[in-house]
Amino acid sequence: MQINKQKIVITIIFFLVISNLFAQEKSLLKYVDPYVGTAPSTTISATKHGAGTEQRANTIPAVGVPFGMTQWVAQTQRLETKCVPPYIYQDGTISGFRGTHWLSGSCVPDYGSFTIMPLIGKLKTATTEAIAHFEHADEISRPDYYKVEFSNNQLVTEIAATTRCSIMQFTASAVDSLYLLITPNSDKGKAHIFVNRAANEISGYNPAYRIYVGSGKPAGFSGYFVVKVERQSKISGVYSGANRFALDSIADKKNIGAYLGFKVAQGEVLRIKIGTSFTSIAEARKNLEAEIPGWGFDGVRAKATTAWEKALNKIQVADTSAKNKHIFYTALYHSLLMPRLYNDVDGTYPQFSHQYKTAKLSAGKNYYDDMSMWDIYRAELPLLEIIQPKLVSNIIHSLILKGQQGGWIPIFPAWNSYTSAMIGDHTGPFISSAYLKGIVNYDVKEAYHLLRQNAFETPPKADYEEGKGRRALDSYMKYGYIPLEDPVNNAPHSKEQVSRTLEYAYDDYALAMLAKSLGHTADYKQLLARSKNYKNVIDPATGLARAKHADGSWITPFYPDKKVSYITEGTPRQYTFYVPQDVAGLTQILGGKDKLESALDSIFIKDEYWHGNEPGHQTPYMYNFTNAPWKTQQIVAKVRSEEYTDGPGGMSGNDDSGQLSAWYVFAALGFYPVDPVSDNYQLGTPLFKQAVINMENGKKFVINTTKSTPSAFYIKSITLNGVKYKLNTISYRAIARGGRMDITLSDKHTK
User: Fold this and answer.
1) Are 622 and 600 in contact (CB under 8 A)?
2) Are 334 and 395 in contact (CB under 8 A)?
3) Does residue 143 contact residue 333 with C-beta atoms inside 8 Å?
4) How many Cα atoms are found within 13 Å in the side-chain-facing hemisphere of 220?
């Protein structure tokens, strides 16, 4: 009994020390740098392997809240152009402030956006004239607040935001005329805008259009907006480019918009507030009334600050390096932007894959879209499983709704439509992972029905051409791999047969685990057998992934270190290690643990590791399956230091909805989900002296790290809750239960 009391006292003292340590850190938001990722990458692997748009992280310094519907960003690039974010760091002019639906870190176009441009002096509506110069020294960019002073317009703009709305204030530096230009950014010339001067309101919409499969077709909804102005304007009108009209509406022309004109005194502030929606102007107005009922700018900003501090404080780190904290919390921030909320405050949302039809959620639910699933199932969604499991349930519920409304569960849902983007069928691993970890607040039977349909059935031709179902499933099931003779048509990424085979094998494993847990024994056995299909595209002679013909012969000639058509965004060598479900089986093909180690070495010796390519993200952790787990610690520390920094070019490629950032969050904590479906994370090497993960269930998991020297990164010893720990893994359940892991690092590895 006395021993138990001592343990209780020690535990209380321990957590008091933690509380005091982190109480000193009043704000974590100050460590977030939204400029990171807004310029071409300066990292080592991106310089070699990245090219063109692959060399930019494509993040934007936007104002908003975590997982919000609309973000707000200074617009330095005008159009909704694929792979061109609305803000690029090197630009020197601003053409407005955009209500954006940019998929953070992506290589896709914006959609349903609109822009508000304030101008001092003369009214100018031509796109070449309605611009202002700025310097980065005159900018302040935070997730909760943006401020800029134009170099040539004597005007200061400030922005704060809520989940669906924004408030902006413009301060004049001299007595002059102030004009507001509101432009729906329709590259197709299909937008509408309306002026209600009596109500001090401008409203409009910009129709969204699909990309990838179904590219150019209407997405079935628009980006709707309502702009309220604090006081009456002196003049108003509409325009199309440089042509202005004394009308109260304009539609279906290029470069259209509406303008309002005001007289302002020196130091006078003009405020506007904006509501947005994906369902109607009326709902945008309701969202605005609910989220910003008054005109208090500071109050809106304060709520956004609180939302971000709460989200960032899910993980608290202690370190003497401010730079390390900047990189970490910027990465965590980028991990908390997608998926995107799609429903209004009253639960109304656009039905998935329908034309301008809406539905309404039951109380307590939210609907999400813009899921870059090929990327985020690897680390970003697993991170949310730890720190925001309730959100994960809502995301899965959204996926089920999509499957019910469209008939097939989508593979890469974006623009609230089927896209069939990238490869694989990774909705399955995400849902399986969550369910097996006890995140279950959704209809799992319906989820399984929809996932099974994807795994076993090919849609009718018309549905298939709309992006429903797995690509090339018939070939995969017939041969056990996708042969070179199948070009994989009706896919944004055609061919890529080997990568598809490897990823379908993992998807089959994931669904097998869900089938087993639900008692579907026959499905489990069949899917588990299919999960071994990776063996059909690993050539035992070379020990590398390699394409096959339908007759079973290997492709010749074979180029292991060149980008080839049967591999997705990489080389055969880079993709060889994408067998997270059966590393033991891959090891056997290669000839044992030492051979696996040598094969992994070849990636890094040849400088073929590309951190900007998601399928390689687990590769540094694969050494844990060899006799040299210390190499995982070495490589992870190297990638952390070389592929991430705190400048605008500080990411090694497209952030892809936070996947690249989530990798860093995990790597800095000291573990990573090589197989996201399993309960285990592979241990790496922690970065911080202390990290505390605050779970939604109120538990805390604390990672304390002691280094023999400041540069030490090799694990010397571990204890878990005071007991010596010898595994290379830590389980989800061990983290979720709360506890303490103490790790001692040395500058020399132990064999």
Assistant:
1) yes
2) no
3) yes
4) 17
Whole-prediction pTM: 0.95
What is the spatial distance between Cα 347 and Cα 510, in angstroms, rounded to a whole number?
32
- C-alpha 224: how far from chain center: 23
**Looking at this protein, which amino acid is placed at residue 505?**
A
Tally Cβ neighbours within 10 Å of residue 283: 23
Backbone torsions φ then ψ of 653, nearest 5 degrees: 160, -175
End-to-end CA distance of the chain: 40
Radius of gyration of the chain (CA): 26
Predicted confidence (pLDDT) per residue in 350-402, tens digit? 999 999 999 999 999 999 999 999 999 999 999 999 999 999 999 999 999 99
Q: Measuring CA to CA, which residue among 382, 518, 503 is closest to residue 446?
A: 518
How far is Cα 410 from Cα 421, in angstroms, rounded to an integer? 10
Which residues are within 8 A (CB) of 597 and not within 5 positions of it... i.e. 6 or more apart? Answer: 623, 626, 627, 628, 631
Q: Tell me, what amino acid is at 289?
A: E
Lay out the sheet containing 114-120: strands in order across: 71-74, 97-100, 114-120, 176-184, 256-264, 235-240, 243-245
Closest to 180 (Cα-Cα) out of 170, 189, 166, 190 = 170
Cβ-contact 547, 566 below 8 angstroms: yes
d(C-alpha 360, C-alpha 348), whole Å: 4
- Token pair belonging to 364: 């307590």
DSSP state of 544: E
Residue of 343, 169, 369, 355 lying closest to 268 (CA atoms)? 169
Judge whether 112 and 223 are in contact, CB under 8 Å.
yes
Tokens of 302: 């304060």
Residue 564 structure tokens: 């080839």
Q: Report CA-CA distances (Å) from 312 to 49, 64, 335, 488.
A: 32, 14, 10, 42
Please give the single-letter amino acid code of residue 319. Answer: D
Task: Check whether 133 has a pLDDT greater than 90.
Answer: yes
Sequence-distant (≥ 6) Cβ neighbours of residue 544 within 8 angstroms: 538, 560, 572, 573, 576, 599
Cα separation, 559 vs 547, whole angstroms: 11
Distance between CA atoms of 619 and 261, rounded to whole angstroms? 58
* pLDDT at res. 13: 44
Longest dimension (CA), the chain: 86
By the 8 A CB rule, do 74 and 88 touch?
A: no
CA dihedral angle for residue 722, residue 724, residue 726, residue 728, rounded to 10 degrees: 10
What is the rounded CA–CA span in Å between residue 241 and residue 221? 25
Separation CA 665–CA 315 (nearest Å): 9
**CA dist., res. 572 & res. 222, Å (int):** 41
Q: What CA–CA distance (Å, rounded) separates 481 from 548?
A: 8
Q: What is the pLDDT of residues 199-257, one digit of tens each?
A: 999 999 999 999 999 999 999 999 999 999 999 999 999 999 999 999 999 999 999 99
The one-letter amino acid code at 699 reads K
Q: What is the pLDDT of residues 175-197, one digit of tens each?
A: 999 999 999 999 999 999 999 99
> Strand pairing partners for 720?
723, 741
* 177/643 Cα distance (integer angstroms): 48
Determine the distance from the C-alpha atom of residue 9 to the mean position of all C-alpha atoms in its chain, rounded to a whole number: 42
Token pair 């047969």: residue: 497
Residues in the chain: 751
Helix (H) or strand (E) holding 512: helix 497-518
Strands 739-746, 358-360: parallel, antiparallel or unpaired by DSSP? Answer: unpaired
